[in-house]
């Protein structure tokens, strides 16, 4: 058995890959996987970590996972006779060249570490990036993945999140306030319009804190009296569908109450004497 374990499979200079080395590498791999599984299960137990939400636990696990695998790779190399310190020192010049070539990749990796450690963005957060609304599904070391409202997976370099302006709709609270704008005819009764708008919002099932629904008169436009109705909802990701439903309810209620939504209008007044004067002036010229 001893001779079998010490049998050399590959010989490269002073480095000998023996059978027991393979067993050590396999053991390190499975021990690492087992350790990460135990850590993941421990973080997932709310009774032990009641203060950690899903996103925070995910971020902590990702950081631990990268550190543990980095240590495991070090053990892999040491087990086959590769000295880590000598390897790093011997490849310093090469690493500089690779670093310059992969500068953006390293920038994304550092950004990923910042996102995981800072926890400003977590799993399930609703982000608005470059005009696209995305629900975060995975925060990786180099890139993050999210699902947009068209059910398309979007892969985002982490540096784009850390260096650009990003709106996190769900960072402070699960509920977010939204608004719908509408204009009605000047002949409409203002109090009746406000009552119709607020009652329309009350009818939708996705609205939270219905006592905070508020309709406001915001401006006197050129063709209409402009109103704004505000409401809270937790269903941030599907807000456009919710707004569409509410607009349909508002339109039906306005029509039922004989309140019109006017077309843009412009009144043109022509002064007959002024027209004749200009005409005469042009002829004389």
Automatic annotation (TrEMBL):
Domain Mechanosensitive ion channel MscS intervals: 105-171
Organism: Saccharicrinis fermentans DSM 9555 = JCM 21142
SUPFAM superfamilies attached to this UniProt entry: Mechanosensitive channel protein MscS (YggB), C-terminal domain, Mechanosensitive channel protein MscS (YggB), transmembrane region, Sm-like ribonucleoproteins
Protein name: Potassium efflux system KefA
Transmembrane segments: 20-43, 55-77, 83-102
Keyword annotations of the record: Cell membrane, Membrane, Transmembrane, Transmembrane helix
Membrane topology designation: Multi-pass membrane protein
Domain Mechanosensitive ion channel transmembrane helices 2/3: 62-103
Annotated localization: Cell membrane
Species classification: Bacteria, Pseudomonadati, Bacteroidota, Bacteroidia, Marinilabiliales
Gene3D superfamilies: 1.10.287.1260, 2.30.30.60, 3.30.70.100
PANTHER family recorded: MECHANOSENSITIVE CHANNEL MSCK, POTASSIUM CHANNEL RELATED
């Amino acid at each position: 058995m001893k001779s079998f374990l010490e049998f050399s499979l590959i010989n490269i200079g002073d480095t000998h890959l023996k059978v027991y080395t393979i067993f050590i590498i396999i053991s390190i791999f499975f021990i690492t996987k087992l350790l990460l599984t135990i850590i993941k299960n421990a973080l997932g137990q709310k009774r032990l970590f009641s203060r950690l939400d899903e996103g925070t636990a995910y971020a902590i696990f990702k950081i631990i996972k990268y550190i543990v695998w980095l240590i495991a790779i070090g053990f892999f190399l040491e087990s086959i006779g590769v000295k880590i310190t000598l390897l790093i020192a011997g490849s310093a010049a090469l690493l500089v060249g690779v670093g310059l070539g992969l500068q953006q990749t390293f920038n994304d990796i550092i950004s990923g570490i910042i996102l995981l450690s800072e926890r400003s963005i977590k799993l399930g957060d609703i982000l608005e990036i470059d005009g696209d609304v995305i629900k975060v599904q995975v925060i990786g070391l180099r890139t993050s993945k999210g699902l947009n409202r068209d059910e398309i997976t979007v892969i985002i370099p982490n540096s784009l999140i850390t260096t650009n302006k990003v709106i996190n709709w769900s960072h402070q609270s699960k509920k977010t306030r939204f608004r719908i704008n509408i204009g009605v005819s000047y002949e409409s009764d203002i109090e009746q319009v406000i009552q119709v708008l607020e009652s329309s919002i009350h009818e939708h099932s996705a609205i939270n804190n219905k006592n905070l629904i508020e309709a406001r008169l915001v401006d006197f436009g050129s063709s209409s009296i402009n109103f704004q109705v505000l409401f809270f909802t937790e269903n941030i990701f599907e807000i456009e569908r919710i707004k569409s439903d509410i607009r349909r309810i508002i339109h039906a209620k306005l029509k039922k109450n004989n309140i019109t939504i006017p077309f843009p209008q412009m009144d043109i007044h022509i002064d007959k004497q002024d027209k004749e004067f200009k005409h005469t002036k042009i002829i004389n010229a």
